[in-house]
Structures are given as structure tokens and as C-alpha cells.
Design goal:
Blueprint: E1 6-11, E2 22-27, E3 32-37, H1 41-70
Antiparallel strand pairs: 1-2, 2-3
Amino acid sequence: ISLVNILFIFLSMNLYAKETRIFSIIYDNHREEEHLIAYDTNTRDLWVNGLTYLTKQRIQKTQYQLIQEDK
């Protein structure tokens, strides 16, 4: 999955198994998704927080580039 294509990352939960280690990545304009299970909730949180941070940085950079083009 390319970071450029990630739209958002969110925590998921299997309601039947009450699994809390799951997170999902939505990408390619909502056409693709990956559902992942981390080793534990701390690892899940590291992945979710890290990917969310990188995705926000990419979006901010893109917005900055668009603003600079208008000048």
C-alpha cells in the first residue's frame, strides 16, 4: 500500500470475538481496504498512530504545494 493512496486508518472490532487488536486501512479512493490484526493493542496503536501521522503530513504537504502554485 502506498502512503500516497491511504485515505484513512481506523480501529476495528470484531464484535463476535471481542477482538481489539484489529485496525483497517482504506485506500485507492475507497476502492480497496486492508484489515490487519496486530500482536497486541500497544502494537496496534503504534501502527495506527504512525500511519495517521504520516498520512496527515502528506495531506498537509499537498495542500502547501497547492497554495504555492496559486501564488
